[in-house]
Recover the amino acids of this structure.
């Protein structure tokens, strides 16, 4: 077991955990988005989707606990990396210019990450821990987005998520050693497309709910 | 700023980091460099300043240099916030003053990283990079007669990739330009050039482990894949070498 712990204590090991946990969030978000798009099918379609999902019972709980564990790992290790990287250059440059490597996404990973974390907590309080007696999930959602402030918060959070993933997606391949002139350009384009799909796909839902 | 001037001689304002020793506080001091020939290299320009300072009885600016032909890896400083200056694939000794314009202000700072100590002014102790190599960046060979040059067949493409990685001159610009002061490009280059070749394979797993442990212990930062290193490296070492380093690490840990 000690080789296992030692491997993940190294700088590359920590990055591998970030990559694997992050990839699992991306997979989760794809499923989550596919489910949410059922909202466009109207109130009944969405409610019956929620019912069928909850019919899985304990499987859902296990997946939820798994995601909770992964997000704790991602946040804790991300924080350690951020802290160590800040320490690695105690005296800053008076003048520093990017040579063109950094992107908006890469330069803001820890900040976008913490904003996403705050949003996830807010989001779970809104919908997951909401009192569901005598109401349907569609009604809870519709009621929440009657408040324009909620709509704004949700859209802003999805923009931040898209920025995080715009770097995270190609970066997780680089971290796991997958980089080749043949296919890295495709990975980079895929990352941008996924960011846009998440940003627009999730971000437009509150507007749609507000409009209907 | 990166304009090329036709004018033969230019006047510059330099803001140079001066620091007496490793434990002293330093600061930027302003110098006027007048009548600088655009044919000079950046280091020759500092030579001119130093000659004047010496004649005035003042302490000349300490800076690292050796070959002055872009192959030894000794020179290097941040020029207006860019490692080795604004030109791509160029060491500081090969940066020429024709890339600056008359009247420019140039800020010159030493490489900064927790792992690198400043010896004096712009001279920086980069021996931590040597320590990483000493930890495992070598191959073991039995002493005896030199083996036949082509006894072990190596595909041309593999040899080229290994040689591209072996181009690293250990200057430390990757660490200096990395927002996290990470040494992953340097280590990636060293690991790659050995792991690609048959002679480096027997010790590949152990090598990557000890070199990464040494790198972490010396308190270099973690790689966030910002790609500043690749953009600033005077030998244009590619981050595909960092990906190979990551692969070698995964192989050594799990397979
Ligand atoms: C569901 C949302 C999230 C997704 C899809 C996601 C995805 C990812 C992925 C794939 C990476 C790996 C990049 C690599 O291997 O180089 C990453 C890195 C990172 N994530 Fe997240 N993440 C999410 C939420 C968060 C949260 C809540 C935080 C809170 C602190 C966070 C902080 C970070 C940091 C700091 C890094 C950069 C680590 C480094 O390169 O030094 N992320 N993210
Ligand atoms: S990888 Fe490039 S920047 Fe880094 S030490 Fe080697 S030559 Fe210098
Ligand atoms: S002095 Fe040798 S590379 Fe610049």
């Amino acid at each position: 077991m000690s080789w296992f712990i030692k491997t993940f204590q190294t700088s590359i090991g920590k990055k591998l955990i970030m990559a694997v946990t992050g990839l699992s969030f991306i997979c989760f978000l794809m499923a989550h988005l596919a489910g949410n798009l059922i909202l466009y099918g109207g109130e009944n379609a969405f409610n019956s989707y929620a019912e069928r999902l909850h019919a899985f019972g304990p499987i859902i709980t296990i997946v939820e606990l798994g995601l909770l564990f992964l997000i704790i790992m991602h946040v804790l290790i991300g924080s350690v990396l951020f802290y160590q990287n800040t320490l690695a250059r105690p005296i800053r440059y008076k003048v520093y210019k990017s040579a063109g490597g950094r992107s908006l996404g890469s330069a803001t990973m820890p900040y976008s990450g913490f904003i996403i974390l705050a949003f996830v907590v807010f989001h779970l309080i809104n919908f997951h821990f909401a009192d569901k007696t005598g109401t349907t999930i569609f009604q809870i959602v519709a009621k929440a987005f009657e408040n324009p402030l909620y709509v704004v918060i949700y859209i802003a959070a999805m923009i931040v998520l898209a920025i995080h993933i715009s770097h995270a997606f190609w970066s997780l391949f680089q971290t796991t050693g997958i980089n080749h002139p043949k296919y890295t350009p495709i990975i980079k384009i895929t990352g941008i497309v996924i960011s846009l799909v998440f940003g627009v796909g999730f971000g437009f839902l509150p507007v749609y709910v507000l409009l209907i | 700023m990166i304009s090329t001037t036709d004018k033969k001689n230019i006047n510059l304002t330099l803001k140079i980091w001066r620091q007496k020793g490793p434990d002293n506080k330093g600061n930027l001091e302003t110098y006027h460099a007048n009548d600088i020939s655009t044919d000079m290299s950046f280091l020759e320009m500092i030579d001119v300043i130093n000659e004047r300072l010496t004649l005035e009885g003042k302490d000349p600016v300490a800076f690292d240099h050796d070959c002055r032909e872009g192959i030894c890896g000794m020179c290097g400083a941040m020029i207006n916030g860019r490692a080795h200056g604004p030109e791509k694939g160029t060491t500081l000794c090969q940066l020429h003053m024709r890339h600056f314009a008359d009247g420019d202000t140039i800020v010159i700072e030493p490489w900064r990283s927790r792992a690198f100590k400043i010896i004096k002014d712009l001279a920086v102790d980069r021996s931590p990079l040597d320590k990483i190599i000493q930890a495992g960046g070598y191959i073991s060979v039995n002493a005896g007669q030199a083996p036949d040059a082509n006894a072990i067949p190596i595909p041309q493409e593999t040899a080229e990739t290994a040689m591209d990685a072996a181009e690293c001159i250990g200057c430390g610009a990757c660490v200096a330009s990395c927002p996290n002061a990470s040494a992953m490009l340097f280590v990636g280059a060293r690991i790659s050039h050995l792991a690609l070749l048959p002679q480096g394979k027997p010790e590949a797993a152990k090598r990557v482990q000890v070199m990464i442990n040494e790198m972490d212990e010396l308190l270099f930062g973690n790689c966030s894949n910002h790609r500043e290193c690749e953009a600033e490296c005077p030998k244009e070492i590619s981050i595909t070498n960092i990906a190979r380093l990551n692969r070698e690490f995964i192989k050594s840990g799990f397979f």
Summary: The longest helix of chain A spans residues 58-87.
